[in-house]
């Protein structure tokens, strides 16, 4: 997508009665339906074996054609309401393509075991579930009422979301395997037995405590070490906060976070059930704390990281710089004297003028590794 089209798609108001909401629904449903149909056509290449075992093909087929129907009707509505018929027609075209693709080999070919695959189904499912949960939540309980759904930077953030979900196998390859190779010799099977035999709830709390301590220091280092800051600044470059802004994380930071966060799990040997429960919980929580919601949780705000707590971390106001590093437990910020949560709410987000992160996914990918121009000394 060119920068021109990205700029055109961003910062668009979705007002009622102009056929824009119906066009948005038609195009979104059409795109997701096309991707789902591709998953049916190439299941071995595009879907995750772990998810394939729990799918009900008939249910997915019904949902897919229902989605195509909704997208088609929304496209027609847009054509009649929106003077720019191109968007509505694009939605109709995409839904027609999805119907044609899906009506063929919808049953799919028998599954084969493959070593390399893309998590396209994981991307579609998580995007659909998160959008259905967070878009209505942010509309009903918005902290910034004027903020648009299609705010500035949403296309870039969607690309990050796609990249991290489609490349889930690659990320695991670059994090879990090197950690196992490096630290395998120091793993103590007796310690693993002791830790994994504890009740699940206790293991879950222990993972939170341990991993949060590690992530606090990684995060703080990313703010303090100039080279690491250039990587992490990409995450801080969003000027508006919402659920999708949580996806804006440079691939180098994704790898570093997952590698370092995996080390305590590897050494202590928590059970897979406790580890998966933690990963699902913390992934959802990480999205929630970026959301544009006004919940302040008066009795919990110093016990767990809330949107208020994390929004202060993203604020570019002087009082908020280098504060609130904890991912889940603010107690670490209190202990290490970096906590900041005054009675008022932050009003400005992004990086300070000394850090100029470019717009766009590719430019941001290159940004941390680009040579900085040396400032000329004053005569
Ligand atoms: Zn940060």
TrEMBL record:
PROSITE patterns cross-referenced by the UniProt entry: PROKAR_LIPOPROTEIN
Main location per the UniProt record: membrane
Claim: Transmembrane is one of the keywords in the record: yes
GO molecular function, one term: iron ion binding
Domain Fatty acid hydroxylase: from-to ranges: 207-338
GO terms under cellular component: membrane
Domain of life: Bacteria
Keyword entries, A-Z: Membrane, Transmembrane, Transmembrane helix
DNA-binding in keyword set: no
Subcellular localization, as worded in the UniProt entry: Membrane
Transmembrane segments: 21-46, 58-79, 86-104, 116-137, 158-180, 200-218, 276-293
GO biological process: lipid biosynthetic process
Pfam families associated with the record: FA_hydroxylase
Name of the protein this chain belongs to: Sterol desaturase family protein
